[in-house]
Design goal:
Length: 461
């Protein structure tokens, strides 16, 4: 009989120390066409795909008295061109499985495309058609405008989708950052194709715009292709008025914008004030503190308003930085009967942030979380092309990416508490509440001077 010898080996394993890898921005080249168009080219050959991101100085800040004009103009770029009807454009994109979208937000308009590398010539020719030769077909325009009007009407049923515009209106007043990107039913209904053509001619210009292309291509060949395709884009002969750079209004008192929605069963609210520019040198530090305060599920706000008190299903805070200003807001929603308790709790958590500050353990947790979340933001060709566009628009250099982890690591407790005092507002806070005014007006009056309006109506400031 054979003897079986069993050997048991015990290994003592030291717990692994998890260190976030330092993310470095991949190399890319930049050149500028004679018409002023800036072009960024980044080769990423792992997957045979290309992404294009184009940023243009054609956002809602240029709407003037015609709210929604920038947004509708961007949407209408795809309604037909000199050489393609809308149907032909749609079929050409569908045939090769390409995605191409146009849109406008507060500061700029954008065109985004993603497609197989083998189809680059076809799609870039379509991009040229859409950007340089839109026709704004009257019949297609009326259909698009009606779709936009339906979307505006539906927003009345979704306070969380419309409240950011009310908040910006309260924070920025008559500054162009207070413009309403999606427009109103009245402003959209009055728009004509002549308005879109005038807006396009004034704002869809190569100088002040940037095209960022990331993916599987040769930079030398792509440069030649882009130069040939887009050199005929006419440069603007006059400098644009930098409307957004004008001074923001000073906030000297607490105000409440109460937006009545008669059938509301809950109150949706924002609490906040003006915030920071996107190129603020302490942007990373501010992001770390906000992560801890209201930027993740285990934040101070969510713990107090959801986990500990059950007043809401979720609460968060965010900085929305722009080129020349920005906003900070605490946002959540709650049942009508718990509106006052939820508001009081939100103010209490903000006051606690200021009065008690942070401790070493919570700061370390937030820093590790931010470092872990950073690299996945820039993995795909789409994400990288968007990043290059963002860097162009906000005048960011490579150091934002390449030194990110170092900036996170050097933030200490003393600096963190200084950041709280400097950038997290505590005085003259502004409040927007969308809910049933007859039930919550008396509550709203606790927090500042009340301005009342109806859902989908914006008062004069």
């Amino acid at each position: 009989m054979k003897k079986v010898i069993l050997v048991i080996m015990v290994m003592l394993v030291t717990p692994a120390i998890i260190v976030a890898q330092s993310f470095q921005l991949p190399e890319y080249t930049t050149f500028t066409l004679p018409n002023g168009l800036v072009v960024n080219l980044m080769e990423q050959k792992e997957v045979p795909v290309i992404a294009v991101n184009i940023i243009l100085p054609a956002g809602a800040i240029y709407d003037g008295e015609k709210a929604g004009l920038a947004s509708l103009t961007a949407d209408a770029l795809k309604l037909g061109t000199k050489n393609y009807t809308k149907t032909q454009l749609d079929q050409a994109l569908d045939f090769v499985g390409a995605n191409l979208n146009t849109f406008a937000q507060k500061e700029y308009a954008s065109l985004y495309a993603k497609f197989a590398a083998k189809d680059k010539e076809t799609i870039l020719n379509l991009v040229k058609e859409i950007l340089l030769y839109p026709t704004f077909d009257e019949t297609e325009f009326e259909k698009e405008k009606n779709r936009a009007l339906v979307a505006i009407d539906r927003q009345k049923e979704s306070p969380r989708s419309i409240i950011p515009s009310y908040f910006d209106f309260l924070i920025y007043g008559n500054h162009v950052y207070g413009n309403i990107p999606q427009g109103t039913a009245a402003s959209l209904g009055a728009l004509k194709t002549s308005d879109l053509k005038a807006f396009y001619n004034a704002n869809y210009i190569p100088n002040g715009s940037a095209m960022s292309i990331v993916g599987d291509f040769s930079s030398k060949e792509m440069k030649a292709m882009i130069t040939k395709l887009f050199s005929e884009w006419k440069k603007s002969s006059s400098d644009k008025d930098n409307l957004a750079s004008k001074p923001l209004p000073k906030i000297s008192e607490s105000k409440v914008l109460l937006v009545n929605k008669d059938d509301a069963k809950e109150s949706t609210f924002y609490i906040g004030s003006q915030g920071i520019n996107r190129n603020n040198p302490e942007f990373v530090d501010i992001s770390i503190i906000n992560t801890l305060f209201g930027g993740r599920f285990t934040s101070m706000l969510n713990d107090e308003l959801r986990v500990n008190s059950g007043l809401t299903y979720g609460a968060r805070s965010s900085f929305e930085p722009l080129k020349y200003g920005g906003s900070f807001a605490i946002s959540t929603f709650t049942a009508n009967e718990t509106t006052e308790a939820a508001l009081d709790k939100a103010f209490e958590v903000l006051n606690t942030l200021h009065s008690k500050g942070l401790d070493e353990q919570s700061l370390a947790s937030a820093k590790n979380y931010v470092k872990g979340q950073f690299p996945p933001k820039y993995e795909t060709v789409s994400q990288l092309s968007g990043l290059l566009g963002e860097m162009f628009w906000y005048d960011l250099d490579k150091s934002y990416i390449n030194n990110f982890q170092k900036k996170v690591d050097v933030l200490d407790l003393k600096k963190a508490n200084e950041i709280i005092e400097t950038y997290f507002p505590k005085d003259h806070l502004q409040l927007v509440i969308i809910g049933k005014a007859s039930e919550i007006k008396a509550i709203a009056e606790k927090y500042g001077k009340v301005i009342e309006t109806e859902i989908n109506t914006y008062p004069q400031m």
